[in-house]
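Pair request: fold both.
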Amino acid sequence: MDEARVGQKGRTGHRWWLKGERPRGLCDRRFEWAYLYAAVQPATGEDVCLVLPAVSTAAMSTFLGAFARALPANQHAVMVLDQAGWHGAKALRVPDAVTLVSLPPYSPELNPVERVWLYLRERFLSHCVLDGYDEIVTACCKAWNALTPERLRSLTHQPWVQKVTS
């Protein structure tokens, strides 16, 4: 599980271009954004994603509630996440069907969802100018819906995950 900021002040990403020249790109200097909250099951590619206006304990509680509702009855999930402040806040409401496990500090490379953010930014969310919050949300939803379970599995199923789950 992780969250990513998407907005008007985006990044350019990598593009194939002529050697010695810089590719033309669009740049937006406005400061409006939304946040993608997502959890992916690396073995199957099953996912839950929400686009929310902020990162906070309340937003994280909303996401955890949506995640728990997506679980089949009588199933318990272990969610691996980083140590962001709102992930361990005392006010965080964690459903009974979910257990949170924190990654070691300063180790984003261990979070499989980080590779999904990179893929989305490289393929769908870079080199574009988004005009306002509604367009940002639409772009986020369009990008996430373009992902297939097979793609999510290939992005998130890392060697260390296989060792832990087998």
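--- second member of the pair ---
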Amino acid sequence: MRTTVELSDPIYRRLRARAAQRGARGFSSIVEEALRLYLERDEVAARDEDVFAAARGAWSADDARSFEAELRDVWSTWSTARS
């Protein structure tokens, strides 16, 4: 499907350059790829939110405090130095 999209001059130049690097005449495939990746990431984020929303209320306040205390204990044993 054809459509019109307004782009700033700097974005247009970057898209043309990237298309040239790929050996493409235009940049439609790059725009489509970028939109597909954006929409997929957005859908994953929405699913994650649904999972957290469904879990809301599953733990009591005491359960959450206990988990946080255990997590702090584990974190305190981790070395921050990297070799």
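Observation on the second member. The chain is about 70% helix and 0% strand.
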